[in-house]
Amino acid sequence: MKYQRDILKDVEGYTPGEQPQGGPVIKLNTNENPYPPSPKVLEAVSSLDAESLRKYPDPVSTKLRAACAERYGFDGPEWVIAGNGMDEILALTIRTFVDPGQNIVVPYPNYSLYEVLIELHGANLEYITMDADFQLPEALFTSDAPLCFVTRPNAPTGVMATKESMERLCESFKGIVFIDEAYVDFADESCIDFPKKYDNVIVGRTFSKSFGLCGIRLGLGISNPDIINEFMKTKDSYNLNVSTQAAGIAAIEDYDYMVDTVAKIKQTRTRLEAALKEMGFTFQQSHTNFILAHWTGTPSAKEIFQQLKDQRILVRYFDAPGLQDALRISVGTEQETDKLLDALANII
Prior knowledge:
There is one protein chain. The longest helix is centred in the last third of the chain and has 25 residues, at 255-279. A hairpin with an 8-residue loop joins strand 11 (316-317) and strand 12. The chain has a seven-stranded mixed beta sheet with strand order 2-8-7-6-5-3-4, sandwiched between helices. The chain has a three-stranded antiparallel beta sheet with strand order 9-12-11, covered by helices on one side. By secondary structure, it is of the alpha/beta class. The chain folds into two domains: 2-30 and 256-347, Aspartate Aminotransferase, domain 1; 39-253, Type I PLP-dependent aspartate aminotransferase-like (Major domain) (Aspartate Aminotransferase, domain 2). The chain contains 14 helices and twelve strands.
């Protein structure tokens, strides 16, 4: 299937059957955390015994949801739904609150998987282009769609919609507002308290980015208990295995480890931004673990992408409106950043 091929290319950097040559790949194309997860996560997973593997897992992930609710300031697990990655939470939201044939409104540019999930459900995607500063478009506030997705901070731009505009959207939008906070731990503030203030808000979180746990596939939807109860009616049974539940509990309970890791990434991000600016790239301040760097010189951004790939350094190029002059570069380790900058200096 075309989508499966696209996913493999996005994740691995190469199309199926393409054989990379040379040494190790520097992978800065999928916004993975360059540092390992908390050692307590590995301890929790390795301590699972045969009996826990023999039996079905808790179908509603009660202990995990309770731990996450406590961390994020909610009264109990009834405020949280846990899913097989943020992607399942997004798909559940569409399946639960939108009928096939209805519109779902999304600011453009945004996370490309929204389009895929909407199409699979038989709904209609309504893109509304953001303004020049990548802030929420005015037409979003008056849409009559039953659901809108807002990624904050935005992917792929790294820009944060203002808190004031988010409050205005939640107050004026008649349907469900899904605030995708996949990258929010790399920012300075969030909308995590919005479900307490607005009955139509779902805040999404993932353990893939800041917690360094892409491989366990764990996402959260945080909302009022009435909305969470609707999710429980439509979610798959046993959607999280015992390993994921154990890893998630250990990660959220060792929250300070994540905070320290994020601090290192933000420090490298500052260094990378300064170096890219000196080279002539332009970008808005990133609130994520990546930078969307625009380039108008020669060679083109697409050519730079390919030359980096030839050197086994993977970044992301979007052949899409408004993005053809840009490279999305994940923040790696200091050593990976050194090699990226050396390669760019030789290319441009």
